[in-house]
Amino acid sequence: MSVSQLSKVQNEALDNFVENFDIINALADRNRQKIIVLLFGNLESGMTVTAITNNMSITQPAVSHHLKILRDSGIVAYRKDGLQSYYYLTLQEPLEKLENISRNLRLELEE
Predict the structure, then answer these.
(1) How many domains does the chain have?
(2) Does some domain include residue 7?
(3) Which among 61, 92, 58, 73 has a CA at the least distance from the CA of 23?
């Protein structure tokens, strides 16, 4: 079946995947998943790169790389406090986008 043979609902579901690739990609990596879980445990205060690195089995540059991907996808943000940056979860918009993908897939099931 080519893309042109897809139904309207199927095309919308496919478009949602493409439009939200950054979020899907960000969630697909085990290290980024662990960072998200760590940040869930520190919702109010956030965590520094050093604190995150101390809880991971990867280097600080690797943690910074994963945090950049999570920031670019809208899953995390940071705030400066003096020389320190504290990373925290910003899940509202990414969750809404994932719910939209799920909703479109459910519509496909109902057709």
Answers:
(1) 1
(2) yes
(3) 73
Decide which of 44 and 27 is more confident. 27
Q: Within a domain: residue 111?
A: no
Q: State pLDDT tens for residues 84-106.
A: 999 999 978 888 888 887 887 77
Nearest to 43 by CA among 80, 95, 97, 91: 91
Alpha helix ranges (H) inside 41-91 = 49-54, 60-72
What is the pTM (predicted TM-score) of this model?
A: 0.80
DSSP state of 93: H
Give a yes or no: residue 70 inside a domain: yes
| Selection from 97, 87, 92, 93 nearest residue 38 by Cα | 87
The widest CA-to-CA distance across the chain, in whole angstroms, is 56
Q: Is residue 35 in a domain?
A: yes
